[in-house]
Write a structure and sequence with these properties.
single chain, binds iron/sulfur cluster, Rossmann fold, alpha/beta
Length: 260
């Protein structure tokens, strides 16, 4: 049982808000919660479980961990934590590492390939476990960085969706930490001494360089614009497509009195 201090209540409230705003959880859901052993996924699992205990509807959680096969990954540390807290869980061992090393195109993103492979494994495991939803630990800063990355490097105006039907048409991916800032998650994980295990991959800590650049940019700008994160969050929820250049939208007829 976690200490229910102000930070705990704040995060729980933000997750509850996201669940309500986007209809993330419904009665009868069986949700696979992707747990890597990092701060985000520990936080997600504990908070979803706390909400589940008092929820007006019944739903189930199963923590799912994918060991990508990187040498030195400490899956047993994670398993001990899940046992200790009484979570239902499943551990999957894969050879993603070998596949990445053999099949990744030179110069392409290690992280993107790795994430795609592991997501595929998660869908397969979710199927096997009878889960209709997959919960991922992306938080507010991930949403913001993705929004900026897509504009700066890809030329598209999009971030992530808090609730999205996967391409396979069978699973719904949910991201209940959408309103939770990374700094709060870091502090929460520290306070509760979650046994963080690194992913042990060859780019661990370095991650995706472009994403790290966006992270620094947001951090630096936040010193000048303290409400930057909340403003960007509101921007994502307040899209005015007719004031952009997408011809599929911009060339539609303008209703009278709305020409600004
Ligand atoms: S940091 Fe490592 S484990 Fe995480 S996505 Fe990138 S390659 Fe995969």
């Amino acid at each position: 049982m976690l200490v229910q201090d102000t930070l705990y209540r704040k995060i729980k409230q933000q997750v509850g808000q996201a669940i309500g705003d986007f209809g993330l959880i419904e009665a009868g859901d069986r949700i696979a919660v992707a747990v890597s052993g990092g701060k985000d996924s520990y936080t997600l699992l504990h908070i979803l479980d706390a909400l589940r205990r008092r929820a007006p509807v019944r739903y189930e959680l199963v923590a799912v961990n994918v060991d990508a096969g990187f040498p030195g990954y400490r899956q047993e540390t994670l398993a001990a934590h899940l046992e200790e807290h009484g979570f239902a869980y499943h551990l999957e061992t894969t050879d993603c590492y070998r596949i990445i090393e053999e099949k990744r195109r030179p110069g392409s993103s290690y992280c993107a390939f790795c994430a795609r492979l592991r997501r595929g494994v998660l869908y397969t495991v979710a199927d096997r476990l009878g889960c209709n939803k997959l919960a991922l630990g992306h938080h507010l800063d991930d949403f913001i960085e993705t929004l900026l990355l897509n504009q700066f490097y890809v030329g598209t105006l999009k971030a992530m969706s808090p609730k999205l039907l996967a391409d396979n048409g069978r699973h719904t991916v949910i991201r209940p930490l959408v309103y939770v800032a990374e700094a709060d998650i870091s502090e929460f994980a520290k306070r509760h001494a979650f046994p963080i295990i690194g992913c042990a991959c060859p780019v661990s800590g370095e991650g995706d360089r472009q994403r790290q650049r966006m992270k620094r940019l947001v951090r630096d700008l936040s010193t000048e614009i303290p409400h930057l994160r909340s403003s960007l969050l509101h921007a994502m929820a307040n899209v005015q497509p007719r004031h952009l250049l997408d011809r599929r939208i911009a060339c539609r007829e303008v209703p009278q009195g709305d020409e600004s």
